[in-house]
């Protein structure tokens, strides 16, 4: 009877590793991604660089996409939007620009580098969306919804639907278009020139 590979086997019980050891694994993954890209990254290479076994890595993360996304999340923890609530939509979106600007040196370049690989790998694409994009979308949608409930923006304003796409697109696409990160100053100008006018908000 054929045996299952580590990639397809049922999830195994996770062993206990220290936070320091976990960060060592994540640093190795991020370094290898920057050195050779997603396709060149292998569990074997991570194991060799961290002097660990493949089985240890598979027990913790099951698949390469899960390990990569966990590593990206580890360098992106400070980019937390869920707690932002300034009392106004303008204030909330400015806070998003500030948080994103502070984190723009973290995962942005890596996510951009993974973009092509994700389009070719449904598992990686799903993992990236679940871990790094969906929470951003939901947080921004909640801010806009509060703005509508407070009467700051008309509920039937057609621009309401596109605020997450605009902001996240600006964050992720600027490196491609201009070879520059979407820092706080850039995102603030983007809000004032594009997002606020579309929503009927005075900056």
Kindly summarize this structure in a few lines.
The chain has 203 residues and is mainly alpha-helical. Helices cover 66% and strands 0% of the residues. The protein has nine helices and no strands.
Walkthrough of the structure:
This is AcrR family transcriptional regulator. Residues 19-79 form the HTH tetR-type domain. Keywords: DNA-binding, Transcription, Transcription regulation. It holds the Pfam family TetR_C_11. Residues 42-61 bind DNA. The protein is mainly α. Helix content is 66%, strand content 0%. It contains nine helices and no strands. It has helices at 19-36, 43-50, 54-61, 64-74, 89-103, 108-120, 122-149, 163-178, 184-199. α1 crosses α2, α5 (89-103) packs antiparallel against α9 (184-199) and α6 (108-120) crosses α7. The protein is elongated, with a radius of gyration of 20 Å. Residues 1-14 have low confidence and may be disordered.
Which segments are poorly predicted (pLDDT under 50) over 5 or more consecutive residues?
1-14
**SSE pattern, N- to C-terminal:** HHHHHHHHH
Shape: elongated
Instruction: Give the biggest sheet.
Output: none
The share of residues in extended strands comes to: under 5%
**Helical stretch tally:** 9
Number of strands: 0
* Rg, Å, rounded: 20 Å
Q: What structural class do the secondary elements suggest? A: mainly alpha
């Amino acid at each position: 009877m054929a045996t299952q590979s580590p990639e397809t086997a049922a999830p195994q019980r996770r062993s206990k590793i220290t936070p320091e050891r976990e960060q060592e694994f994540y640093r190795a993954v991020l370094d290898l991604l920057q050195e050779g890209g997603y396709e060149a990254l292998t569990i074997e290479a991570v194991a060799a660089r961290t002097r660990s076994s493949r089985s240890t890595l598979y027990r913790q993360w099951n698949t390469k996409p899960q390990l990569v996304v966990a590593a990206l999340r580890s360098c992106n923890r400070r980019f937390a939007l869920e707690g932002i609530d300034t009392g106004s939509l303008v204030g909330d979106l400015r806070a998003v620009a500030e948080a994103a600007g502070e984190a723009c040196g973290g995962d942005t370049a890596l996510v951009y580098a993974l973009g092509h690989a994700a389009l070719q790998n449904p598992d990686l694409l799903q993992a990236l969306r679940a871990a790094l994009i969906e929470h951003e979308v939901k947080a921004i949608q909640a801010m806009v919804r509060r703005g509508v409930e407070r009467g700051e923006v008309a509920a039937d304003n057609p621009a309401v639907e596109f605020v997450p796409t605009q902001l996240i697109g600006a964050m992720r696409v600027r490196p491609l278009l201009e070879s520059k990160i979407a820092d706080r100053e850039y995102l603030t100008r983007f809000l004032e020139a594009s997002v606020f006018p579309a929503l009927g908000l005075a900056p």
